[in-house]
Amino acid sequence: MKQKLLFGKETLRLMVQRLRAPTTWVNPYSFGGGLPAGGLSKESFELILKCCSFDYMGRAEFEFGAIPKSFQAMVDRKQELRGVTHNINANVVYILAPESLLSDIQALLDKVLAEKLSRWTRSVEFKEPTYIRESFGLDASMCSHEDIIGWLACSPNNEDLHGWMYFKSQEMFLAFCQLFGVDSGLDHHTEKNRSKRKKERKNESHKNSGTPENA
């Protein structure tokens, strides 16, 4: 599959909204001095707040419609959305995105989590820090960012750079899969792991008893 997001001639410029767990208290300053709820309708905002809360990004681009545009893109491409589990070394990232972009997003996350990247890199530029490495405990920080557990790509001027999400939190991932009516794929993933563990236990049992593995 041709990669649309990475390794092109131009630097990839990304806007990514940081997400925290839902709370009973809504921070009125999550979107600074921008539009109320970042431009989300009251109904949409109430639904989304059951799944997450928004971290203050400190940049006007996040406060004047980028967030609802990104969620609307997910609604428009609902039939294409897929939920997948992606393993990067010892870390698990859950992705909710159009199927056509999954390989690119996985490659992007591989790059970000496998390499120690600063905010500015040769091939990837983030409008504001995502703190994903700090969230996974891969980089030290003066402030704790463990409560950053989800991310929304919301670059408004490129259809491939908004309308998808990734998560550290399985709970938040499942909440958004349910919100969009998307199969999380976790049942299949769990079944594969269960079958793998069953086979490993069987092989170990044969090994200990001296019985050939394929007997």
Describe this structure in words.
The chain is of the alpha+beta class. The protein folds into 2 domains: 12-184, no CATH class; 186-215. The protein has 6 helices and 8 strands; from the N terminus they run E-E-H-E-H-E-E-H-E-H-E-E-H-H. The strands form 2 sheets. It has a 6-stranded antiparallel sheet with strand order 3-2-7-8-5-4. A two-stranded parallel ribbon has the order 1-6. It is globular, with a radius of gyration of 19 Å. It starts with 11 loop residues before the first strand and ends in a 6-residue tail after the last helix.
Strand order of the largest sheet: 3-2-7-8-5-4
Strand content: 15-25%
Estimated helix fraction: 25-40%
Count of individual domains = 2
E-strand count: 8
Mean pLDDT metric: 84
Give the helix tally: 6
Overall SS class: alpha+beta
Mind describing the biggest β-sheet?
Answer: 6 strands, antiparallel
Q: Note the run of SSEs as H and E.
A: EEHEHEEHEHEEHH
Question: What secondary-structure arrangement, pairings included, does this model have?
Answer:
Layout: E1 12-14, E2 16-20, H1 42-48, E3 53-54, H2 66-76, E4 81-88, E5 91-98, H3 102-114, E6 124-126, H4 132-135, E7 150-154, E8 162-167, H5 170-180, H6 186-209
Parallel strand pairs: 1-6
Antiparallel strand pairs: 2-3, 2-7, 4-5, 5-8, 7-8
